[in-house]
Amino acid sequence: MSFQNKINKNEKGVWRYADFYDEFIKQENRLELNSGAILRQAQDDKNVMVSLSNHQDDMIEFSNTKLLENVNHLYFKREDENFTGSLKDRSLVYQVSLAKQNKKKELVISTSGNAGIAAAAYCQKTGIKLYIFISPKTEKAKIAEMQKYNPIIIKSKRAIRLANYLAAKHKIENLRPSVNNSSVEGFKSIAFEIFENLGEVDAIFTFVTSGSSFVGMGRAYRYLLKNKEIKKMPRLYAVQSGDIFSIAKLSLRGARVSVASEKATKQSRIYTQNIPGMFGIKNTRRKKEILEIIKLSGGNGIYVNDSEVQDAKNILEENKIYTSPEGCASFAGVMKVDKENKFNKAVCILSGKLREKINIINESKIFEAENFGDVDKIVASIDITP
């Protein structure tokens, strides 16, 4: 069956491609991903948006040819306009729908922010109790978003380890994308949407920490290649910045990584929400597959420094595009590669929204834990049966 015939044309977002996922989610268990629904082109000379189609996806074409000499058409994929403000919507709407189908009552996740927001939103929709483990340094704006959906939030310097402990001891599924294989499925829809809307493209740039979204896109394109829907995969570029550089450093195509200068400035850097990938995983378990996808696609790992990210941010905002530091880093990667490669069509993933600074959260509804015993006490205090 061809790609076009396999699409659920009455659906949008993740569920438009429900028949492509490894584990099928029945219609009655599918939670809604309330993302945008138009493909748009940005014309920099008039500074207006023009509607081109009524597909489920949000993309804009960046046509400032003065800045990009070797990319004829660059499209920004606005994942920051998803329901909870990031591409993590795709992963979590699938994962929580699967949990609903499997009649799960409780779930757990450790998160730097966006995955926790998405998990909380969809768990509230289906009535699943959710434990979220966060770092004490998590942005208050993201905590405030999580609290809208009433999850059980536990703050700890050992958030990942304590979440793993809770999952293991109480046999609760851990949703964290870096360790949960089902997280990859929803991310496949990013590649399928790009292909459905734009056809074959030459390159895709996206920020990578755990790499689950990168792997999802890579698997989707491998499917399209295997089934002869495309002649070749687009070059997939894994962009990294700050203290996140494990993929860029080990890229099989020899990414040029200036890590030493970044380490030298680490002591003086002020860690704020302007740091791409802050609290992200520094060494992902998906490294091997990520590198395989990079090699197969002819892509690369790209490291961009703070100055390059800031330059990219300034350019985007001059063009009235406001997005997360990770999205700015992805665009910085485009500009870096533009100096060396020529592409007809390229896509830059803007993975999360730029959230307003918020200093007020409900601290009384946040638990704190330093060890396994603290976690057990919290579980007992809210009367959860193991």
Topology of helices and strands:
Layout: H1 3-6, E1 39-43, E2 48-53, E3 59-62, E4 71-78, H2 88-101, E5 106-110, H3 114-126, E6 129-134, H4 140-147, E7 152-155, H5 159-170, E8 173-174, H6 183-198, E9 203-207, H7 212-226, E10 235-241, H8 246-250, H9 259-264, H10 287-297, E11 300-304, H11 306-318, H12 325-338, E12 343-350, E13 366-368, H13 372-381
Parallel strand pairs: 4-12, 5-6, 5-8, 6-7, 7-13, 9-10, 9-12, 10-11
Antiparallel strand pairs: 1-2, 3-4
In short:
With 386 residues, this protein is of the alpha/beta class. Helices cover 37% and strands 18% of the residues.
Overview of this protein structure:
The chain has helices at residues 3-6, 88-101, 114-126, 140-147, 159-170, 183-198, 212-226, 246-250, 259-264, 287-297, 306-318, 325-338, 372-381, and strands at residues 39-43, 48-53, 59-62, 71-78, 106-110, 129-134, 152-155, 173-174, 203-207, 235-241, 300-304, 343-350, 366-368. By secondary structure, it is α/β, with parallel strands linked by helices. The protein has 2 domains: 39-85 and 182-350, Rossmann fold (3-Layer(aba) Sandwich); 88-180 and 358-381, Rossmann fold, CATH 3.40.50. The model is unreliable at 35-56 and 252-273 (pLDDT under 50).
Share of helix among residues? 25-40%
CATH class of the largest domain: Alpha Beta
Radius of gyration: 20 Å
| Shape descriptor | globular
Q: How are helices and strands ordered from N to C?
A: HEEEEHEHEHEHEHEHEHHHEHHEEH
The CATH topology label of the largest domain is Rossmann fold
Structural class: alpha/beta
Overall pLDDT level: 84
